[in-house]
Amino acid sequence: MRPTSWLLSSVHLLQVGLAAFVLIATAVHLQGITWESVDSDLINTVQNAQCLLGKDANSSTLCTYTYIVAGASMGASILLSILLCITCDCCGRGCAGLLDAILGGVGAAWWAIAAAVLTRYGVPANQDGWPQENWRIAVFVSSWVMAGLFGLGVLLSIFKCCGPREEKVEGAGRSFKRMKEEEAARTAQLAAQRSRYGQFQTNPRPYSSAV
């Protein structure tokens, strides 16, 4: 496998891992949360939240949206990894860079929009002191990182498709060697012809026998 293909495979693996982290963090730490709070009269109350990705704790819309984004992203990353193998790029041959770049570009835009949405609702929730602040930050920061990883995948796919190939360099080396061999053969042939011509000049009848 060529270095570019290794990097692409690593990027796809990171994408799957980070998407799984977003899913788990949302499901375990930001949905269906119960906590105790103390009001101004020092009375403990138990509060419940369907989703703590935003200020509307009674709505699970943001959590559902996050599940859709991360789940679809995992599927796309796995698909890109499969394409990398099907097109023989794991062996250093073939090129599906255009398709990889298109899917990667869609993934980058997909996560950039999700990151903007989660940041838009997560930051005000943090400012108002809603619980699980660190996990909210982790989720929307991870979303921005995912957008960057897909963008990096686009660049690597384009380079893999359009960059220099080892096969071309090796073929050019063989062609140059063949040209040098042909040139040496022509030089030797020309030298032999000149030698015979010089022999005829010094002896006009080199093949005649003395009488």
TrEMBL record:
**Which regions are flagged for Polar residues bias?**
190-211
Outline the segment boundaries, as ranges, of region: Disordered: 189-211
Show the stretches that span the lipid bilayer.
65-86, 98-117, 137-159
As given in the record, the signal peptide range reads 1-19
Keyword terms, alphabetized:
Membrane, Signal, Transmembrane, Transmembrane helix
Q: Which domain of life is it from?
A: Eukaryota
Q: What is this protein called?
A: Transmembrane protein
Source organism: Auxenochlorella protothecoides (Green microalga)
